[in-house]
């Protein structure tokens, strides 16, 4: 028993842009086929923003939905954290743009950059402020417009990614509910496997970096695949052990949606039956930091997650990085 507040998800929301890009559309752009993409990734469609639409635009819609679902007004929010690999600009932080647009007049705000693990990291960081008694309500967002950093001439990557945003409101919940345990980690030695080479201090933007297509994501997919399956299994087992729970007790496994083969392989290694695994990568592709909160929102809407459900979330991605959390779903 502890006097520290327990922290849970009070409400959540998500948003994907309306435009859908199918595998058949991609067949017209690069040397690929619907059959190859389906069988190697499980992806059928992804949602992509129109020109001029930004990461903060998606984040704002998801945030307003999350606030409504939590019955919280924007003015009650103490802190906004946006996990993103594609901020609107390097400066100001996308979280500041969201703060202004939703009217979160009392909130401080910052972005958190750790690739596809961004949502889990932001969730864990946000939870610490509530746990410590420093803040009462935190808005945690995963939002991405990966289409803007995708090389639409590179068949190794352009078939994978999609745009979207998901958001949750964190706050105090009764004991025994909320976030039970977490596991965060990185292996920086694997950073080369998934990177956006130019635009930072190592290779500032120049005519040369643009000509060499260095402002687009580069990935050694096969190696990231192997890392992912191992990282998911190991991190999931650690986070369950920390909350003294077993795989058999997990009601809904919500992994980062990157590739259905990664999800299936890791669920099999963990011994989680398919009916307890949430999958929507077929419709959205890999939306990086947005994938877990979008999946959570859909799982709640589909009543795959309800009051008292034990939810296991595992993210992984660039860094290389991973992050997991177990959550006992809040009852109201
Ligand atoms: O968010 C976290 C980060 N990302 C990930 O989790 C992605 C992890 N990786 C993957 O999902 C998979 O590795 C990919 C889907 C990216 C690739 O699947 P794979 O089964 O690992 O294929 P591969 O990279 O080993 O390539 C197999 C073949 C190659 O041809 P050769 O060298 O065998 O002749 C590729 O050139 O498939 C070729 N290929 C394609 N063919 C048709 C690669 N991309 C395509 C494509 N269409 N789009």
Task: Please describe what this structure looks like.
By secondary structure, this protein is of the alpha/beta class. The chain folds into two domains: 6-176, 3-Layer(aba) Sandwich (Peroxisomal Thiolase, Chain A, domain 1), CATH 3.40.47.10; 180-328, Peroxisomal Thiolase, Chain A, domain 1, CATH 3.40.47. Helix content is 32%, strand content 23%. The protein has ten helices and 13 strands. It has helices at 23-27, 34-41, 55-70, 94-102, 118-131, 207-211, 221-242, 260-270, 281-284, 291-301; strands spanning 6-15, 20-22, 45-47, 79-83, 108-112, 138-145, 163-173, 178-186, 194-195, 218-219, 252-255, 310-317, 321-328. The strands form four sheets. The protein has a five-stranded mixed beta sheet, sandwiched between helices. Helix 3 (55-70) packs across helix 4 (94-102) and helix 7 packs parallel to helix 8. The longest helix is centred in the last third of the chain and has 22 residues, at 221-242. It is globular. The model has no long low-confidence stretch (mean pLDDT 97). Oxa(dethia)-CoA binds next to helix 2 and helix 7.
């Amino acid at each position: 028993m502890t006097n520290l507040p327990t922290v849970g998800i009070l409400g959540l929301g998500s948003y994907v842009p309306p435009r859908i890009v199918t595998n058949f559309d991609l067949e017209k752009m690069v040397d690929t086929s619907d059959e190859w993409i389906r069988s190697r990734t499980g992806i059928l469609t992804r949602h992509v923003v129109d020109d001029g639409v930004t990461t903060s635009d998606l984040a704002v819609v998801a945030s307003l939905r999350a606030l409504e679902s939590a019955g919280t007004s924007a003015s009650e929010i103490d802190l906004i954290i946006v996990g993103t690999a594609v901020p609107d600009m390097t400066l100001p932080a996308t979280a500041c743009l969201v703060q202004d647009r939703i009217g979160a007049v009392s909130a401080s705000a910052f972005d958190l950059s750790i690739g596809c693990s961004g949502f889990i990291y932001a969730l864990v960081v946000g939870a610490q402020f509530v746990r410590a008694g420093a803040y009462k309500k935190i808005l945690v967002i995963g939002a991405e417009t990966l289409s803007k950093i995708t090389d639409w001439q590179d068949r190794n990557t352009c078939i994978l990614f999609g745009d979207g945003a998901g958001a949750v409101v964190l706050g105090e919940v009764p004991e025994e509910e909320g976030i039970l345990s977490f596991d965060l980690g990185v292996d920086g030695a694997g950073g080369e496997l998934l990177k956006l080479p130019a635009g930072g201090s190592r290779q500032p933007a120049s005519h040369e970096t643009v000509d060499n297509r260095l402002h687009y994501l580069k990935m050694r997919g096969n190696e990231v695949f192997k890392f992912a399956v191992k990282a998911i299994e190991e991190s999931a087992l650690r986070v369950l052990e920390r909350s003294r729970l077993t795989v058999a007790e997990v009601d809904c496994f919500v992994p980062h949606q990157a590739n259905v083969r990664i999800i299936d392989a890791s669920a099999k290694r963990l011994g989680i039956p398919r009916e307890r695994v949430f999958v929507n990568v077929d419709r959205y592709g890999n939306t990086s930091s947005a994938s877990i909160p979008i999946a959570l929102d859909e799982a709640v809407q589909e009543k795959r997650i309800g009051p008292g459900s034990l939810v296991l979330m595992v993210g992984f991605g660039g860094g290389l990085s991973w992050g997991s959390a177990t959550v006992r779903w809040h009852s109201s």
